[in-house]
Specification:
By secondary structure, the chain is of the alpha+beta class. It has two domains: about 270 residues, FAD/NAD(P)-binding domain, CATH 3.50.50; about 100 residues, no CATH class. The protein is built from eleven helices and 20 strands. Bound molecules: flavin-adenine dinucleotide.
Length: about 425
């Protein structure tokens, strides 16, 4: 491969804090807010313009909150109390504003449209912050503890942690999705069989061979609205979420699916004749990419057998749901699990100090990931990382030196079922 040697350069250190969180998405927002509330100085670096990641760009359905405490409980109680959530659905746009308030009130220094480009290293080669690329240029955020909440484990990988990607047998990842709104719909809600039958009739009328990309679709209004329908049908397989060109191709294909879905409904059914094409999410719905090799891993056997471990931080109760990895596979495969623990060691990348991983990139396998990647569980991981970061900063040590039982005990005090 042709290469270019980038000249070495001095970077300004823009911030010197206790904790820097890479990625202000689901787990990252929870980690940053909780760490700041624990008295730590915190910078949160997010590549998009808003907090929340999948919570505010992709997912309108909330689950696995019942046995959670702390941040997760506060979140769901606020959303339900303020009408942002009509259980189990929430309004992503209003949730963005709520997360803004939480981040601001906690004192987190947020940096939006800023990308975690590399780990910063001290004279011993240990991680000691982040190199950030933003509108201000390239600068460094020095921190005692770094929390990688990028979903993809970008920082851990750049710091030298090893990782696995996708299904163990062939490396294929679950399909990538995109969320989209159709507005001005005045018809009734419609269950899955009725909606699929209507789409079949529309496709036959169109005569263009239209086939819905996800067969679990139904007509569901966005929480708190009367005339906006949630379109979660766009799904593509065979794209690499860690390859910029492949991911870009996926986005274009997904947006084309949004148009085909809209056109088929609008032009070939009476019920949807008045719909209008609404906004498309700015972030793709990536279900899986890197799983960082950590001190402990959460595997299929743990999920199906309900594994409990000493120092388990909280319990996951969500079923495994695997969206197709290749065309021709079932659109979704669901398997029940028994409540199982996420151990602290699954947040500690092997061979790297001063770094925690949270969210869908923690240590685990392809099948278990399809259960623990759920929003409430990512919030809980973020909160656990904040607790561990506080103990590490106080003890002037790496998070690896903190006993998992200590973190678990604090999680239990916050109401997380163990
Ligand atoms: C299509 C889809 C549907 C889903 N449906 C549901 C559902 O119905 N219910 C449910 O509970 N869960 C659902 N999930 C799962 C859940 O939403 C996600 O697994 C979870 O939110 C992931 O959290 P995370 O913090 O790991 O990643 P994200 O929420 O994706 O956060 C990662 C953040 O990091 C940022 N980022 C990435 N790289 C960098 C970088 N280098 N520098 C700076 N910022 C960076 C991203 O912009 C993002 O904001 C769904 C997921 C998908 C993809």
């Amino acid at each position: 491969m042709d290469t270019y040697r980038e000249p070495a350069r001095e970077l300004p250190v823009s911030h010197d804090v206790d904790v820097v969180v890479a990625g202000g998405g689901t787990a990252g927002t929870a980690a940053a807010v909780c760490a700041a509330r624990l008295g730590l100085s915190v910078v949160m670096v997010e590549q998009t313009a808003i907090p929340g990641g999948m919570v505010t760009h992709v997912t309108h359905w909330l689950s696995d909150f019942a046995n959670k405490g702390g941040f997760a409980r506060e979140f769901i109680e606020h959303l339900q109390g303020s009408g942002i959530c009509q259980w189990p659905y929430h309004n992503l746009f209003q949730t963005t504003l709520y997360l803004d308030e939480l981040v601001h009130a906690s004192g987190v220094r947020h940096l939006y449209l800023a990308r975690a480009a590399a780990p910063m290293r001290d004279e011993n080669g240990q991680v000691c912050g982040l190199v950030v690329e933003s509108k201000s240029g390239r600068h460094a955020v020095r921190a005692k503890v770094v929390i990688d909440a990028t979903g993809d484990g970008d920082v851990a990988a750049l710091a030298g942690a090893t990782f696995a990607v996708g299904r163990e047998s062939d490396g294929a990842c679950q399909s990538i999705s995109l969320s989209h709104l159709l507005t001005n719909y005045t018809g009734p809600a419609m269950g899955n069989p009725d909606f699929l039958a209507l789409l079949d009739r529309a496709a036959a009328a169109a005569g263009n061979g239209y086939r819905i990309p996800y067969d679990r679709a139904r007509v569901q209004t966005l929480a708190g609205t009367r005339q906006c329908i949630w379109n979660g049908t766009p799904h593509v397989c065979g794209h690499d979420p860690l390859d910029a060109a492949s991911l870009s191709d996926a986005l274009v294909a997904l947006r084309r699916q949004c148009r085909e879905f809209h056109d088929t409904l609008k032009h070939h059914t009476e019920e949807f004749a008045h719909i209008e094409f609404g906004p498309i999410a700015g972030l793709p719905g990536v279900r899986e990419s890197r799983r960082i090799r950590c001190d402990e891993a959460v595997n299929y056997a743990d999920a199906s057998g309900g594994c409990r471990r000493p120092g388990g931080l909280f319990l996951v109760t969500q079923a495994i749901d695997i969206h197709k990895c290749r065309e021709g596979e079932p659109d979704i495969y669901v398997e029940k699990i028994k409540p199982y623990h996420i151990p602290y060691g699954a947040l500690l990348p092997q061979g790297v100090e001063n770094l925690l991983v949270v969210g869908r990139c923690i240590g685990g396998d392809h099948q278990a990931l399809a259960s623990y990647r759920i929003i409430a569980d990512c919030f809980a991981m973020g909160e656990a990382a904040a607790i561990a970061a506080r103990l590490a900063v106080k003890g002037r040590c790496s998070p690896r030196a903190i006993p998992g039982e200590r973190v678990a005990a604090e999680m239990a005090c916050l109401g997380y079922e163990q």
